[in-house]
Amino acid sequence: MLFNTLSGRFLLLTMLFVMLAEVLIFVPSVARFREDYILSRLERAQIASLALLATDEMIDANLERELLDNAEVFNVVLRRDEVRQLVLSSPIPAPIEASYDLRDAPAWELIRDALVTLVDPRNRIIRVIGAPVRQAGLLIEATMETAPLRTAMIEYGFRIFLLSLVISGVTAVLLFLAVRRLLVAPIHRVVSHMSVYAEAPEDARRFIEPQARVVELREAEEALQSMQRQLTGALRQKDRLAQLGGAVAKISHDLRNILTTAQLFADRMESSADPMVKRAAPKLVNSISRAVGLCESTLVFGKAEEPPPVLTRFMLSTLVKDVVESETLASEASGAEFVTDVPANLSIRADHEQLHRVLTNLVRNARQAIEATGTAGTIEIAAGEDDQGWWIRVGDTGPGLPERAREHLFQPFQGGTRKGGSGLGLAISAELVRGHGGRLELVRSDSEGSEFMIHLPRELVPSAVH
After folding, report:
1. What whole-number distance in Å separates Cα of residue 391 and Cα of residue 59?
2. FRET partner for 409 with CA separation of 20 to 30 A, picked from 112, 156, 433, 457?
């Protein structure tokens, strides 16, 4: 309903306040109209009296009646040369009930007399006294009835009322439009950004960008942006800590087994001169290294706080070339061959460092998968763009992912793609891509290899919901 909205209530209040202002203007306006009405009758009466005096008071009775009817009075009295003279007269239908002296009458008295005339429906006979026009005597008196005066005052008040309605309506609409543009629209924008942000708090594109010119609204937008950044960081930290807590039991079990094996070898080295010590020593070192590596990965994941991506424009081919060169030395031992299909002029908008980490994780997993087979293989990196955004494909000819890894892919400590892996690489990569508003997905994984796809959106900010 309109009046349940901020705009509707502001419209209603504006109309009420404008009408109140018009009422405050209406009362003195009606009093002024009554005064002008009476003065105009006195002026007509004076003109009729002077016309009669100019004829030495020799005038036909019918003409005298016509002069009085034109002035809308019953009789006219002039005071000239200290003499009070009845100039024009006709029968008065009723006794005179009140006299009003308009000479130097205070404003409150004029307002009071006007209100009395409006509320009293009777046709009363009143005497009015005023100063003559152009000083044609000392004063002029006339007797008149109130019915025509009251009718004229009601008509005038009705016109004022209609004009007040028009003024209040136009003023209210203009203020309504102004407030809607300057206040309500920015508030809707903030609410819309809150709704869009709530749909995907990890998407850094959904952070509001302060644009309001009104100081208070801009401060609200800046506060909302700060809250969104803090909340996104807190959600990531909370999610990681929750995942870390769920993995503690498994880590403790695996770590205990690893360290127990290392302890057995260590005890044997200390208490026995067995020649097997030389063969046991490397195993001891490897066991301890595995334990340390697992602990370090766990602690790093629990403490990491990925910052929002800094989106810039750059050529994707340069980044892919850098990733391939970094993995080339390691791939020589595994027999992996790189094939790239990235247009040289393909420019994308992303965080260069974060995308580098994502591609490095995917390429390294592909290389290690091929290395595990003991045979040569191929790693392919391709990219392109469409109407929605950009896509990057990373595929390999490895043995494919185990079924358990596919079920818990992108989940820390559960989605490892190789034996002994923690699954943190894919989990972090998926989180970084989500921070861009995109997604990382497994397209296929079978005996012929695996293929991952990165989708990055073209829009800087998702469409707001109105």
Report:
1. 110
2. 457
